[in-house]
Amino acid sequence: MILSIHAVVGGAIASLFPSHPVLVAVAAFASHFAIDAIPHWDYPLRAIRKPGAHNRLLADPKLFRDLALIGFDACAGLLIAIWLFATPATIGAIVLGAFAGMAPDPLQVVHSVFPKQPLTTLQRFHKWFHTKWRLRWPLGISSQALFAATVSWIVLTVG
Which residue pairs from 30-35 have beta carbons closer than 8 angstroms and sit at least 24 positions apart in sequence? Predict the structure, then answer.
């Protein structure tokens, strides 16, 4: 899934129990793996040589393009989560949930540069959980948006 979907789902989870930050962080982090198991589309990252390979981050235009795309995606998801779920009293929990929901993906990048434990085990778990079925654009992004909208609607209606 793209980062913004993980952020919205993490924010939705956080809105259910905002006064329990440890539970928010754990549940939002775990949600990342659960929703990565759903077939989806991922945007291509140009600076990665080969998934799972040891990568060195070199300053080149591909890396800067990838960082801009990832940054936009993460910020958009964070802002949507705040807009949908935050109140002045819960904004900290919503931000925590959004970041925890996105965290496994940046940890993959950290692992590709520093392939050490416990990141190696987390990476293996992430790859095991991640769907092998890829959807094409635009179905893949539409299904993700529909999933995030459904989760948000359920949480806003029930919560």
Answer: 31/6, 31/101, 32/6, 32/101, 32/102, 32/103, 32/104, 32/105, 33/104, 33/125, 33/126, 33/129, 33/130, 34/129, 35/1, 35/5, 35/6, 35/9, 35/147
Q: How many CB atoms neighbour CB 39 within 10 A?
A: 12
Residue 75, both tokens: 């910020």
The separation between CA 84 and the C-alpha centre of its own chain, rounded to angstroms, equals: 17
- 112: nearest Cα among 66, 158, 31, 47: 47
| Site of tokens 């925890």 | 100
List the beta bridge partners of residue 30.
Answer: none
| Bridge partners (DSSP) listed for residue 134 | 40
pLDDT per position as a tens digit, 103-149: 999 998 888 778 899 999 999 988 888 888 777 778 888 989 999 99
Question: Could you give the angle at the alpha carbon of 116 between the alpha carbons of 32 and 1, nearest 5°?
Answer: 20
Q: Which residues contact 34 (CB under 8 A, 6 or more apart)?
A: 129
> Average pLDDT in the 33-42 region?
87
pTM exceeding 0.90: no
